[in-house]
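Please predict the structure of the following assembly.
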Amino acid sequence: MLEARLPQGAVLKKIVDAIKEIVSDANFDCTDSGITLQAMDSSHVALVSLLLTSEAFDPYRCDRNLTLGINIKTLVQILKCSGNDDVITLRAEEPADTLALVFEPPSLERISEYEMKLMDIDNERLEIPDTAYHAEITMAASEFQRICRDMQTLSESVTIEATKEGVKFSAEGELGSGSVTLKQGGSIDSSAETTTIELVQPTTQTFSVKYLVNFSKSTSLAGQVRLAMTAPLPMLVEYKISDCGHLRFFLAPKIDD
Amino acid sequence: VAPQGRLDGFFKVT
């Protein structure tokens, strides 16, 4: 059986909110080491890869590997019944045809219990190859969100250009064009606001901005976001979940002629 | 407008 108590239940709410526009149904794979999820959007443009290690939970127990087929919209609805400070406990037995969710506020004066039906999701398991990225940008997650939203007002595409001086986001639409350039910050100041660029070679790629805006809904999970690019491969957009996992998105670029 | 690429072929099915 699975019994996973998440002291910071809000983390689960944030994760589910961040992926709900991208995936409708997904398998949550539970093993002794934690919970993972991997799912592509229906148009095969974006892939979500979640890792929540057992350290995220206290306690965590998973005797045997379990796959929980979850309708994300249903989970969003049920999680709306929890408070932001609630401890969330997930419980499932074998065979996993339902998932029990228990919400407890810090006061412990209220316990709410929900049970959701699980689905049988036929999902191909994909292996994400290790990629040597040509450009890796670490920047404030809130800044990335703002830039994506700003670029979306002009165009459905955004071009990201990484050089050793900085990273430039630009958009060109029928109404006009715009760009935001972030300069590489000093190495001494390593606050969440600092932009750092690790460059093997200057890299430019163009992406659908609508997906990036969706990814950036993960902003509340982490202070920083990591963008990793190697043309013409998919870009990696990564949010770390404290020291106990990550939420990664892979996005296929626009095809360069 | 540049066409949108897809992820197929990049990730191996295991």
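Residues 8 and 14 of chain B are 13 Å apart (CA to CA). Chain B has a mean pLDDT of 85.
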